[in-house]
Design a protein that fits this description.
Layout lengths: L16 H15 L12 H12 L12 H12 L21 H25 L4 H12 L2 H7 L5 H20 L1 H4 L3 H20 L3 H20 L6 H33 L12 H5 L5 H5 L10 E7 L8 E8 L14 E6 L7 E5 L20 E6 L6 E7 L7 E5 L13 E5 L16 E5 L5 E3 L16 E2 L1 E3 L11 E8 L5 H9 L12 H14 L13 H5 L5 E5 L6 E4 L3 H26 L7 H22 L15 H21 L4 H30 L6 H6 L14
Antiparallel strand pairs: 1-4, 1-13, 2-3, 3-7, 3-11, 4-5, 5-8, 6-7, 7-12, 8-9, 10-12, 14-15
């Protein structure tokens, strides 16, 4: 029974020493002196705020992308024991002792370090030589811009890591296709491809470019499989379903899970609440939830309500009125109705309260039992403090002459009767009998007499003049198709009115709302709203000192000064390795010219290289050249402030193209021993120049040692580079 103990247990393993050495060098280059500088560097001031909010569980919205990358940075802070207490308000500010700088920068540094062995393995899986793979890894290792970006609390290194991991995983999966389909390793690499793609998109939406590239590549490969007569229909169906599951379904589910964790962590009210709907705000602990939690759910005749405009940008505002009237004549000479002003007011105020009245009854209190208002019901809206009725008529609005003026009706005993009936239309209803609900229902108010829709036009235009206290204009918009959000309102605060007498009702309106029923949004409702806000919420794009155009990146005519020591000349810049970037451009040009030449020759039935070499050339170009194109070209279509670091994913793929071109030139164009020897010598000399440039710019890559004035001036290889030189 114990006979197996008579022989020693032996475990054998094949270790790629080159791969281990590259990994160690990558770790050293990215982790050395990681705590330096112990100060806020460039966009750390931006991401650090989100890390602090995670630590305090406070909700926020970042319009730059999904939350996965932010959560990874926050994980570093959590592992380092960060309590979130630091004021991220200035680049160069010294970190206090409670900020675990090393821990916060660790995950980006590890991701950047692992890009080195990933580059090696990608070239191996593309069936290039060990020397070509080693060259690709060393170029990534010595790329100054990637080192700089990896050593700070930024997201680009994490994005590039997941992009390269996705590419490597797909290549490994594809290479197992012919001989090990549906094996354990086949499934592992296929699933890892989908997971890595989802993580890349979850870090930044730029990851979507590589995801689309891999989906297109997988689609092309599957198209070729369809023509394989050795595969049965059932086998093809299984392959199709496996790819659909791993590359579409699982990434979508994982993407949703990022938001689920994000929303589960950030359950407290915070500074970004106001851009969300009332329903979303009410689901957060504190803030609006303290006011609205437990309010009556169903709006009834006699309900006292505040109406918030759903658009919520550029600011939130509530339907409002006050005793002042529109001027008899406006500045441009047009006349008004001289009725009581109705505006949209961006602050909570007692004059925001309205009473929902049944036109057929006089009472302004809720009956027992309450009579709920449903979709399509006709109501009157009575201003709580002044008891005047919301009204619109065929009089031009003050700022929008093509729309109707909205007012609270004053009877001047002239030929202008009240027109104060409104039809409630629930936009997000499930049926035509839906009840109007607090917070959850989004409603339009359609004027019965003129079919105009109540609209907060001031959210997209100028505010009213001094006579309107600079508040926002509300108009009756002639009925138009569609539901623009400025025409949609929701009940935010709600109580059942109990006082029929005006003085008692005013006291009631000044008192806080009561709690009866809680309202909770489902995860999918929260996800949909948050995702829409991320995609549509845009900060005002202003010209930045270090912003650049996509054309500047190719020739690296721009740089970014990340940090400057307050007393010495030490500084950190985002600058690429000039030799590598120039070589990458040359490699891309050579690849394009050679590919066109081969295609023309093949059209004439002239085959300059063997078929397997042609397939290798095209597949490498599809991954490396295609990766560069899909990660670079979209920026020409973007209307946003661009920076040099946006180019890093693209240039990473372009760098991988260099050894591909070099090996191809050596194998197929250098046909004599002498030419091969000369080409090898030139390659060594070129690589020495890459190393020389890396060493030259290392002081501004790592921020140390501090350089003298003369040394700093010597680093300004281009007039367009902004090397910071202190005035003496």
């Amino acid at each position: 029974m114990l006979g197996f103990l008579k022989e020693p247990v032996v475990v054998t393993a094949k270790i790629n020493v080159s791969l281990v050495a590259l990994t160690v060098m990558g770790l050293i280059s990215r982790l050395w002196g990681l705590c330096y500088p112990r100060a806020v560097v460039f966009d750390e001031v931006y991401y650090g705020q989100f890390v602090s909010l995670y630590m305090k569980r406070i909700f926020f919205v970042d319009d730059s992308g999904p939350p996965f990358g932010h959560m990874l940075l926050a994980l570093g802070g959590y592992l380092g024991g960060f309590d979130g207490n630091f004021l991220w308000n200035r680049i160069g500010a010294e970190y206090s002792m409670n900020v675990p700088v090393w821990s916060l920068r660790l995950l980006p540094a590890l991701a950047g370090a692992l890009c080195v062995p990933l580059a090696y393995q990608i070239l191996v899986e593309l069936h290039f030589s060990h020397c070509a793979a080693l060259g690709a890894a060393l170029l990534i290792l010595l790329e100054n811009s990637l080192i700089t970006q990896s050593r700070l609390m930024l997201l680009e290194s994490i994005l590039i890591f997941f992009i390269l991991l996705a590419v490597l995983s797909y290549l490994k999966f594809y290479n197992l296709q012919k001989h090990s389909a549906f094996s354990g390793s086949w499934w592992f690499w296929l699933l890892l491809t989908g997971v890595a793609c989802s993580c890349a998109v979850g870090v930044k939406y730029m990851g979507l470019f590589t995801y689309i590239l891999l989906l297109a590549t997988a689609g092309l490969h599957f198209w070729h499989m369809i023509g394989d007569q050795n595969l049965s229909n059932v086998s093809l169906l299984c392959h199709f379903l496996a790819r659909g599951l791993a590359l579409i379904i699982i990434p979508m589910g994982l993407y949703l899970s990022f938001f689920y964790v994000h929303l589960a962590l950030l359950y407290r009210s915070g500074p970004h609440d106001q851009i969300m709907t009332s329903a979303f705000q009410a689901s957060l602990e504190g803030g609006l939830a303290r006011i609205t939690q437990g309010q009556p759910l169903e709006v009834a005749y006699g309900s006292q309500i505040t109406l918030r405009n759903v658009l919520g940008k550029p600011m939130q505002c509530w339907l409002h009125s006050h005793t002042n009237t529109y001027p008899i004549r406006y500045e441009n000479g047009r006349g008004s109705s001289h009725q009581q002003q109705v505006t949209c007011y961006p602050f909570k105020d007692v004059n925001n309260w309205w009473i929902v009245k049944d036109p057929g009854m006089q009472q302004l209190v809720v009956s027992n039992p309450p009579r709920p208002v449903r979709h399509g019901h006709i109501v009157q809206l009575v201003h709580g403090i002044t008891t005047r009725y919301l009204n619109t008529h065929d009089v031009a609005a003050p700022l929008s002459p093509h729309s109707q003026e909205v007012s609270c009706y004053i009877d001047y005993n002239i030929s202008m009767p009240a027109q104060n009936l409104w039809r409630v239309e629930i936009v997000n209803r499930e049926s035509d009998t839906d009840v109007w609900k607090t917070i959850l229902s989004e409603v339009r108010f359609v004027h019965v007499n003129t079919s105009a829709v109540l609209k907060a036009s001031g959210l997209s235009g100028a505010s009213l003049p001094e006579w309107g206290y600079r508040q926002l204009e509300v108009v009756g918009e002639k009925l138009s198709k569609g539901y623009h959000q400025s025409m949609v309102w929701n009940v935010e605060e709600h109580r059942y009115g109990k006082s029929q007498e005006q003085k008692e009702r005013e006291v009631e309106l000044h008192s806080p709302t009561q709690m009866d029923i809680s309202k909770n949004l489902s995860f999918m409702a929260k996800f949909t709203e948050l995702q829409w806000k991320i995609l549509t919420l845009k900060n005002e794009d202003t010209e930045h000192k270090y912003s650049s155009s996509a054309l500047d990146w190719i020739t690296m005519d721009t740089n970014i000064a990340y940090w400057l020591h307050p007393t010495s000349g030490a500084q950190i810049h985002l600058l690429g390795n000039v030799a590598t970037w120039a070589s990458a451009n040359a490699a891309a040009l050579v690849y394009l010219c050679l590919s066109l030449w081969y295609l023309l020759r093949r059209r004439r039935k002239i085959y300059d290289i063997p078929e397997d070499a042609w397939q290798l050339w095209m597949s490498a170009g599809g991954i490396c050249g295609g990766g560069w194109a899909v990660n670079y070209m979209p920026f020409f279509l973007m209307e946003k402030t661009l920076f040099l670091y946006h180019y890093l994913p693209a240039v990473t793929f372009q760098i991988l193209l260099i050894p591909v071109v070099l090996q191809h030139l050596s194998d197929h164009l250098c046909r004599s021993v002498l030419l091969k020897s000369m080409f090898s010598a030139l390659t060594v000399a070129w690589f020495s120049s890459v190393y020389f440039v890396y060493c030259t710019f290392s002081p501004v890559t790592y921020g140390q040692p501090a350089l003298s004035l003369t040394e700093l001036k010597a680093l300004r290889w281009k007039d367009t580079w902004n090397i910071l030189i202190r005035k003496q």
